Every structure is written in structure tokens, then in C-alpha cells.
């Protein structure tokens, strides 16, 4: 256990001092009404934008939650481009030490789990949601100087601080409970690209030690 805590300490020492804040998390707790009022208006639970789409349908804003700090490592594919190549995410090269520490945590805590993406969240409070784009089970672990912040999964409050938890985010409703302090969490999961990736680009158990993954 001492070695594992040291691993988290090394990770925290190499965390970026500042992460770009983004709205691109539709499940972020709370709607930013100031932002909504600038771009459109709320109609029930959706934010409708002025004008129509090319097909004559109403325009709806997907990302209207509060700003959050979140980065994802792994692979991605450019949207709206036919036959686009699967490419490493920019975070892999931008934060190589963080990426290395996260993969080491997975190797130690859940060495047989397969994944191709890792999302690192900072002080992110998610509203109740399901991860519609994830495939199968995920692992999540919390760390940092905070209190509270349990992950609530289907009504069960679970302490994930230095305690990795596996759950099916696509099927199980989950959210972040209130917390105080500096809370980080890392989510290891299979993206929609997982089955399209070549085997040497996936983490499959202890193979992570033998390949140059996502570099």
C-alpha cells in the first residue's frame, strides 16, 4: 500500500498547474444560465439556439453546463471527416509524465482490465448521468486533498479516494457527491474506437509493459 500511495504522490507532483477549462461535458452538474442566455434560451431541459439547421430542425446546444477542467489521454478520430485516421490525443505528448503515471496505476491496481482512454478530471462535479459513449465497464479512482466526493452509483455512495472502483457507466446512473478541497479523479474506459484499434494500441492486462502505448 505504501508503494501505491507513493505512486499517487508522484502523479500529483507532475499534474499540470492549470488545465484548460471547457464546457464539453454535457453531464457537468448545474446549468450555466448566464451562458445560456447569451446563446439561446431554455425550453424545458434543452437550450434552443436561434435559427434552424439545414434540414429545417431546431438547433440545440449540447454543452450548457458549468465550465470544468478535464483532459483525456488515448486515441481519437476527427469527426465529420470520411475515413479519418485514428490518432493519438494531444494530451499524450503534452503531459507524458502524467500519462505514464496513470498507466502505471492501472497496471498495479487492475492489470487485467482492457482500456484505450483515460480521462483526468479536476474538481469536476457530475450530475446524475450515464456514459452513453463508453463500452462496457470502466474503472475510476479519486485522489488529492479533499473530503467527501464519493461516487454515487445507482443510489449507493462509494468512497473512491485511492480505492479504484469498477462499474458500468453506460448502464448505471452515477454522479459526484458534494466535496471540499482539491479533488482529482481518473477514469479508465473503452471508447467507441476500442474495437477498431489494432491490438498493439490497446492496453490488455500486463501487455502495457511491453508496448509503446499511445505515444
Instruction: Choose one word for the global shape.
Output: globular
Poorly predicted regions are 205-215
Query: N- to C-terminal separation?
Result: 29 Å
Please tally the β strands and state the result. Answer: 17
Gyration radius over CA: 18 Å
Counted by DSSP, the helix tally is 4
Strand content: 25-35%
What's the SSE pattern? HEHEEEEEHHEEEEEEEEEEE
Brief rundown of the structure:
This protein is α+β, with helices and mostly antiparallel strands and 215 residues long. Helix content is 18%, strand content 32%.
Question: Could you characterize what this model shows?
Answer:
There is one protein chain. With 215 residues, this protein is an alpha+beta fold. Helix content is 18%, strand content 32%. It has four helices and 17 strands. Helix 1 runs antiparallel to helix 4 (96-109). Mean pLDDT is 87; it is low at 205-215.
Amino acid at each position: 500500500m505504501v508503494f501505491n500511495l507513493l505512486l499517487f504522490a508522484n502523479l500529483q507532483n507532475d499534474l499540470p498547474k492549470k488545465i484548460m477549462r471547457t464546457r464539453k461535458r454535457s453531464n457537468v452538474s448545474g446549468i450555466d444560465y448566464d451562458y445560456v442566455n447569451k446563446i439561446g434560451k431554455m425550453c424545458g431541459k434543452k437550450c434552443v439556439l436561434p435559427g434552424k439547421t439545414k434540414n429545417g430542425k431546431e438547433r440545440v446546444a449540447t454543452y450548457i453546463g458549468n465550465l470544468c477542467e478535464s483532459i483525456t489521454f488515448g486515441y481519437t478520430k476527427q469527426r465529420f471527416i470520411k475515413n479519418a485516421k485514428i490518432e493519438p490525443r494531444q494530451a499524450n505528448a503534452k503531459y507524458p509524465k502524467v500519462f505514464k503515471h496513470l498507466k502505471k496505476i492501472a497496471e498495479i491496481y487492475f492489470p487485467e482490465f482492457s482500456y484505450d482512454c483515460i480521462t483526468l478530471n479536476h474538481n469536476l462535479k457530475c450530475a446524475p448521468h450515464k456514459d452513453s459513449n463508453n463500452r462496457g465497464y470502466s474503472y475510476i479512482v479519486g485522489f488529492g486533498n479533499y473530503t467527501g466526493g464519493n461516487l454515487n452509483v445507482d443510489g449507493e455512495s462509494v468512497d473512491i479516494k485511492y480505492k479504484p472502483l469498477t462499474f458500468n457507466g453506460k448502464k448505471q446512473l452515477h454522479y459526484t457527491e458534494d466535496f471540499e478541497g482539491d479533488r482529482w479523479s481518473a477514469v479508465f474506459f473503452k471508447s467507441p474506437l476500442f474495437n477498431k484499434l489494432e491490438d498493439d494500441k490497446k492496453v490488455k492486462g500486463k501487455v502495457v509493459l511491453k508496448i509503446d502505448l499511445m505515444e
